[in-house]
Amino acid sequence: DAGVIQSPRHEVTEMGQEVTLRCKPISGHDYLFWYRQTMMRGLELLIYFNNNVPIDDSGMPEDRFSAKMPNASFSTLKIQPSEPRDSAVYFCASSAADRGNEKLFFGSGTQLSVL
Amino acid sequence: GEDVEQSLFLSVREGDSSVINCTYTDSSSTYLYWYKQEPGAGLQLLTYIFSNMDMKQDQRLTVLLNKKDKHLSLRIADTQTGDSAIYFCAESTLTGGGNKLTFGTGTQLKVEL
User: Fold this and answer.
1) Phi/psi class of residue B106: alpha, beta or left (left: φ > 0; alpha: ψ in -120 to 50)?
2) A69: closest CA of chain B, how far (Å)
């Protein structure tokens, strides 16, 4: 298995532009998570899905952030409009339900820079 | 609430043992985890421990859990330069939608020759 695949690896954009981050989870995994990592806040959970359904989006910072999972093999995280404070590394992770044991597999992340 | 704390830095010499510590707050956590993050990469699961255990050994890694004090530690024996990375502990907490992980701030381990 190729693992969790994220694209792009790096994104540089200007303030106000729309940004879309993409994720392909590991086949067979029924949970998908979006995390954001910054020096100031560390690793923050933004949203997670179970069987393509959003379960907890309480970590999504503002209405400018939205996430979708149209099918079991694809998810997007969209920021519209983007702001400089959104600059961070965004990770996607997936896991298989295992009686409460959340063994997450992470992608390599998308480094986002908003100028 | 959920809060997982770690010291920010640890420096050791190659061949020595490293001990990375973590404190957590949710006494109902069922599993606790250690993840490793190398530069430019995502987090990689190293090991985990079920909350009814107090120790788990996996090759060079030893996890100790003190549930009374809510303290978790990771010991790396014979530390190598390839062990240089950021190490995150995480606790699994039950929410309305299922279990979710709360990560610590991470400990930067530097291994010197």
Assistant:
1) left
2) 17
The 10s digit of each residue's pLDDT in A32-82 is 999 999 988 889 999 999 999 999 899 998 899 999 999 999 999 999 999
Tell me which chain A residues have a C-beta less than 8 angstroms from the C-beta of B104: 42
How many residues belong to chain B? 113
Chain A nearest C-alpha distance from B37 (Å): 10
Q: Dihedral of CA A57/B26/B39/A83: which sign?
A: positive
Integer Cα distance of B22 and B1 in angstroms:
16
Buried b (16+ CB within 10 A) or exposed e, B89-107: bbbbbeeeeebbbbbbbbb
C-beta of residue B109 within 8 angstroms of C-beta of residue B10: yes
Q: Which of B41, B88, B95 sits opposite A108 (nearest CB)?
A: B41
